[in-house]
Amino acid sequence: MDALAPxxxxxxFAYDEVTNLHELIEELRPNGxxxxxxxxxxxxxxxxxxxxxxxxxxxxxxxxxxxxxxxISAPSMGMTMQTMSGEKHRVARASVAAPFLPASVRxxxxxLIEPIAHExxxxxxxxxxxEFVQGFTRPYxxxxxxxxxxxxxxxxxxxxxxxxxxxxxxxxxxGALKSKAAFDxxxxxxxxxRRRAPTDDFVSTLVKSEFEGRRLDNEQILSLFRLLFxxxxxxxxxxxxxxxxxxxSDPNLRAMAxxxxxxxxxxxxxGLRWQPPTAMLPRMATGDIKLGDAHIKKGDWVxxxxxxxxxxxxxxxxxxxxxxxxxxxxLISFGRGVHFCLGMHLARRxxxxxxxxxxxxxxxxxxxxxxxxxxxxxxxxxPRELWVQPYGAA
Amino acid sequence: xxxxxxxxxxxxxxVDGMPGDNVMRCATxxxxxxxxxxxxxxxxxxxxxxxxxxxxxxxxxxxxxxEKEMLSGCIDVRPNSRLTCQIKLSEELDxxxxxxxxxxx
Lengths: 394, 105
Hints:
- The structure holds 2 protein chains of 2 kinds.
- Chain A is an alpha+beta fold.
- Chain A is built from 16 helices and 13 strands.
- A 4-stranded mixed beta sheet of chain A has the order 1-2-9-6.
- By secondary structure, chain B is an alpha+beta fold.
- Chain B has 3 helices and 5 strands, in the order E-E-H-E-H-H-E-E.
- In chain B, a hairpin with a 5-residue loop joins strand 1 and strand 2.
- Chain B is globular, with a radius of gyration of 12 Å.
- The interface between A and B is medium-sized, with 27 and 19 residues.
């Protein structure tokens, strides 16, 4: 058999829903830590085991993410920090990092995140059944970003449309570029406004921030804003959906959600391990390397199997089980190394806050009996739908 | 060599450290609560913040500009705050004492 042929030629990890993703991964795993699978109609590598994935994330010589992102995202997203390497990346990231560090993010919880969670919970009042992804988990992190950026509520829907379109460049280049122009135009006005009259909000922090003696220009700020929606909203909403699907269906987990910060932290962390929103992250190899038994060549596409590594039985015993008390120090959901997810603290505070407020507001909320929760997606993964009854059986 | 970690209640745990290893790695290998190091030691996550005991603070090389930037965004920063992934263990640091910040435990 051709060693480079995909092991599961009938499964496309980009196009198929792969509801049984974890079963497929466990079927692939005995073939080695790095295997061949099909992605976008062509064979690619997939890294499945934790040790090799950790190595790849830290190996910027052979797996510099910049090259891949310059192909798939730069035309419509601009030169975001994902497309940058080395010193240029370090400076770009450091210039915008301050509002994402723990002290700043802690300040957003009461001022920003809790009120949004409550607003969205208000909308569930009186409803017997609600689809929780559309009703809560999707608008929640999106609204956190629009409010961070100071966008008026009346413009939120328009922003969502542009933001969703921005990442469609590989499929719809014209639409993506049109959205980029509209998005940039709108956000530039907000940036200019804060330059004239800075407040203490997120945009003002960026406008005022200096790094190595230089202020950020509009394009530097815009490239961060374009990245915020796909990186911070799509991921968090999918993960929140997966987390609630688990917690809602287990009385012990529900009790934990109301107990305390430590318990909510453990639940959110286990949710991130059990069903990370970025299940398989595509990267392009930037050098020839032997990883596991695989001879990866420069220019090969490689799926970073985050969700597979998070269930590597050598690191996480009984990995398929949702067990918040387990040792999750080796969690790899936010990546590793210098490109580690800048929004990690914000994402975690959003998830923890959601757990508390949802169960405080609707202590009897439950998954609609006999409704099936299906997780979909090989790249970004979360529940397709999550039907709940906010008042339980009542 | 030995490293002592102190939690916010004053409980201490003394563990073996490997010269050449960093303090974050030493802590995670011994499951010290509150030192996480989720990015793996790249100064990218701010989850390995620790307070270096005054007696040792002067014996360490000064933090880099990048470490100082990350520290400035941590919670309850003190003059002796460090990212523990940036402290390299050596025999001269035998007996090093690190307090884990309350915000991380």
